[in-house]
Specification:
By secondary structure, this protein is an alpha/beta fold. The chain contains seven helices and ten strands. The protein is 33% helix and 27% strand. Bound molecules: adenosine-5'-triphosphate. The site of adenosine-5'-triphosphate (ATP) has 12 residues, from helix 1.
Length: 223
Amino acid sequence: MSVLSFENVHISQEGIPTLTDISLTVEAGEFYYLIGKSGSGKSTFFKSIFGELVIDSGAAQVAGYDLVTIKNQDIPYLRRKLGFVFQDFQLLTDRNVERNLAFVLEATGHKDQTEIKTRIEAVLEQVGMSNAIHKRVHKLSGGEQQRIAIARALLNNPVLILADEPTGHLDPEVSIEIMDLFKQLTLQGTSIIMASHDYHTIQRVPGKILKCEGGNIVPVNSL
Ligand SMILES: Nc1ncnc2c1ncn2[C@@H]1O[C@H](COP(=O)(O)OP(=O)(O)OP(=O)(O)O)[C@@H](O)[C@H]1O
């Protein structure tokens, strides 16, 4: 089964159609860049995926949940199947890496401290940051902070990561390292959609591209 499947999906914001007749699928382990001008609907697409915006018509499934019929009480469970990565990392800068990650697990119902520690060690290893477990977030470089943010996104074993301009605050070389990490995650079966204006990185690290334009989202072969 696809990780994401949209068929003839229409979405509006405040009664104004924003995305019209979207049909696309994302399979396990696929990586997509999502490009498009400001205001073209990239955030709208992401919001619909995590249940923040209602689908007006069409059929849409994400991580095994039907977005048309999903009940409000199931939206937190849908979101646990997704990982989120942001341009500005959105880490808690007043605490260390371990507390940043434990916070998420505790907020999603995990109580067993041994299990929490084991999971934190596993995701830090996945992102190559095992040595940073006791470090304060504000002492880390931008690239290291983004790795911790990716570790946080991985905590609940997401099937799909939504990354919103994740290289926007990173220099070109560090951006490439983050892209390498994303590629490794896709090889392990996680799907990733990365909204980006970072054409330098897209050119250096080619991948499948979805373009958001004129209310539609379609695969394109080049920028
Ligand atoms: N809360 C809202 N209420 C009404 N219209 C909105 C709302 N949020 C966004 N829109 C409109 O929906 C359209 C798509 O906006 P969206 O934020 O999805 O674009 P975007 O591609 O993510 O832009 P950016 O790259 O600047 O983040 C725009 O016309 C915008 O004005």
